[in-house]
Amino acid sequence: MRSYLNLRQIALAAPALQPAEEAVRAVFGLEVCHRDPGVAKYGLENALFVFGHAFLEIVAPTREDTAAGRFIERTRGVGGYMAIFDCDDPLARRARAERLGVRIAHVLDYPGFVGSQFHPRDCRATMLEFDHSDGGEDLDGPYWPAGPHWRDAQRLDRVQGIPLVEVEGPDPAGLAAHWSSLMDVPVSDDAGRPRLDFDLGAVRFVPAPAGAVEHLATACVQVADPAAVLDAAARHGLPADGPGFRIAGMRFIPVASAP
């Protein structure tokens, strides 16, 4: 198997699932590709959408005292909940994290799928997850978290992917160095801002005022018609945020090509 590391999925935490789900459907013209009944044991419900060959997941608490609910309370609903990577070597990445003093929050082990969630306080900015789905080296192949029929909901004529996400914080260089060490990916320069590039997707680290909380702030979404997406967001009443809009605490910027 070839070596690979793909930024395959972004997860958002919303106080209620339906409004966020309806916003994604209305703005991007996508339908839910999968719901995972297994998240119920964590007091959650979810919906996944396929964005090209990447995925957007929305989770919402169904009871009190859940990790997602505490995240929403702690952050006041600002920022993405998780960044999820598919890779060829999840056990080696778990061992690397432990050597670096990063705690393992959850171990995931199912038929055809293995991975780990790293503690968000040790990761900084957001929870990181590193998984492997059997056959996942083929982007058109299986991706266990999205269910067996995810390609039925793929609309490449509308949405081609999530080529870039941005993380904001007062120390972008330090955070980039931390993630670089954790992921074993070199830091590059993107117009003066640190950046990590993966086989699929990239992360850019941007400055925030002193004292600001580090968070997963922005997803750039490659779409066929950025202007139409912005118009749909305005019609749906989503709050504008610079060149984009917000859904469940995260900024989305529609782009015609990968930044």
Automatic annotation (TrEMBL):
InterPro entries attached to this UniProt entry? Glyas_Bleomycin-R_OHBP_Dase (IPR029068), Glyoxalase-like_dom (IPR025870)
Q: Which residues form the Glyoxalase-like domain?
A: 11-182
The UniProt entry, under SUPFAM superfamilies, shows:
Glyoxalase/Bleomycin resistance protein/Dihydroxybiphenyl dioxygenase
Which Pfam families does the protein's record reference? Glyoxalase_3 (PF13468)
Descriptive protein name: Glyoxalase-like domain-containing protein
